[in-house]
């Protein structure tokens, strides 16, 4: 029976891995959970604890919502916050760098469940970047942890296919389910010395899943309209939209249309940061508060972007013909 201290904070996705560990009762015992503390959420900015904390409390697990890991684990044991020294630390969607004094804590090893096929797409947003770049495959990598993000030795790796209309949410759900299963399989055989860790080839060029920002979701109005019309991608567009330029550095997109790139953004950036533009057509009656337009849903038709749902800031969402008519009116100058 291997004792595990679990780290995770990423919405319900981290809970999926924790559930898999708890279900492996014959080989794994979860002795504690560490997550991030409650944060203000919603319009009223009320404190909301992570879904990991809520789940752990329901399962009557020892849970520590820590702002940082400055305190040593030994000190927390002395204070009665942690019960015992684990065999493994297992991290899945924690989002923070684990300091060295914690990496030395487990008897066997600290383990990270990473949601890409390392060494490609290290970083906090691997599923988003896999979708943005049009990857057809991704997967999960179990690594030992080092003092640098996602650079530990590879223990096991498993690949999955990315479906044509995969979204950020559906892809993360698949990856975290797979990650939980792979972690449960890996811990016992690693402990028994049946896995030879493999160093990552960090010298070769690899794709990086950098942090996504709100501004990454912005598409200039005229470029959005070009995608709606189905016009091809131009070199000038790559220079104006830095996200497209970055994607082009990862994957050759010279044969891609603008519509394809924006449709991928819609799937990768839902629900956050979303895809949005500003009404800079000079037409319509957009006020300052209503000038921001969020593109909520869309699909491809013959390399054209068809907008299924949009929302002008301060107004109700528009769908179907209403959305198409709104775009047409602004484009043609009628109101």
UniProtKB/TrEMBL annotation:
Pfam families: Formyl_trans_N. GO terms for cellular component: cytosol. GO terms for molecular function: methionyl-tRNA formyltransferase activity. Residues 3-186 form the Formyl transferase N-terminal domain. Keywords: Transferase. Its EC number is 2.1.2.9. PANTHER family: METHIONYL-TRNA FORMYLTRANSFERASE, METHIONYL-TRNA FORMYLTRANSFERASE, MITOCHONDRIAL. This is methionyl-tRNA formyltransferase. The lineage of its organism: Bacteria, Candidatus Nomuraibacteriota.
